[in-house]
Batch of 2 targets.
Target 1
Amino acid sequence: MNTLIIEYSLDQVAMVAKQCAYFMQDISVVTLTGSLGAGKTSLVSAILKNWGVQGPVISPTFTYVNSYRLPEDGRQVYHFDLYRLETQSAFEQAGFNEYIYADKTICLVEWPEIIMPLLTHGVCHISIEFLGLEKRRLTCSLKK
């Protein structure tokens, strides 16, 4: 398993997204874990902007999922926030499991713990830790 560890300040999120891009090549799912306010949605926004997505990127906290299309190749990106979802069964009953590993899609999943059994391959796991008010540590690892 390849691993990338980066310590960064909050004004370096765009640079961190670019560094993570190498690890996300040929990946279908990116998980993001970390405590509330760690910067998961900020990193997703920077990743999507790095991929050419225009316009605002907002957290899907209340809708569970937002969708974006990549301008370069037309792939669909689904940004999930599963914080309020309690079980894998609820995820599946909503039909969200059909998005995971769908053709020409990438799923970015915040709070992925309940669906980890579904993520069997092609996953980039990102963990963000607080190191202080303005500092974070990102650990990025691959499960191919």
Target 2
Amino acid sequence: MISIIPVEGVPEIRAGDDLAAIIARSAELREQDVVVVAQKAVSKAEGRVVRLDEVEPSARARALGGPGTDLRQLEVVLSETARVVRSRGGLVIAETRDGFVCASAGVDHSNAEAGTVILLPLDADASARRIRAGLAELTGLGLAVIVTDSFGRPFRKGTTDIAIGVAGLAPLRDLRGTIDRSGQALRSTQVAVADEIAAAADLLRTSKADGLPVVVVRGLHLDGEGSATELVIPAQRDLFR
């Protein structure tokens, strides 16, 4: 049986906080648990917060802005963008340094202090590995860690949480070469296990104000190693680029 368990009592995260220590104190962990950590908590701990009153919009931000656009926030978005995929009226769909394609390069003001925005971690896979290593040292348990963020999806309304950082499990289950029920060999099926776990954990959060940055998913069989960047489709195979 798979259980999805909220970790209650996690305090507001500040720059420099030891997330592994906070999680170890707050959660009752077991061997093979998957610890799912919201990106905002990771970014805050790593100091990935920008004060907008310290930002000067560039000419490019002014050119891409639309009515009502906060050009300072748009400038931060552009600073985090490896490539602008699409833009319209101040909205930017961007490719991040890690290859993720998302709105505003992941820059967000929800659950941020007034006058600030929160950026994605510089390397969310490395963040997941650090948290996992810290938890292993503190608990002696073999755990996996997933760092998640809410992303929109082309052609679909609404957001869902996906994995942007992974440690301690293979993010993809490769079914290519296996046989389906009709006896046909599968040629391309790969299951995004890390994304499925991320979305399942987000079911416990009914709003942005829930204050549940950490969720434990229990009952899965963990195997392999990998990173969230393995979930990004290579450019040469991406039909939408």
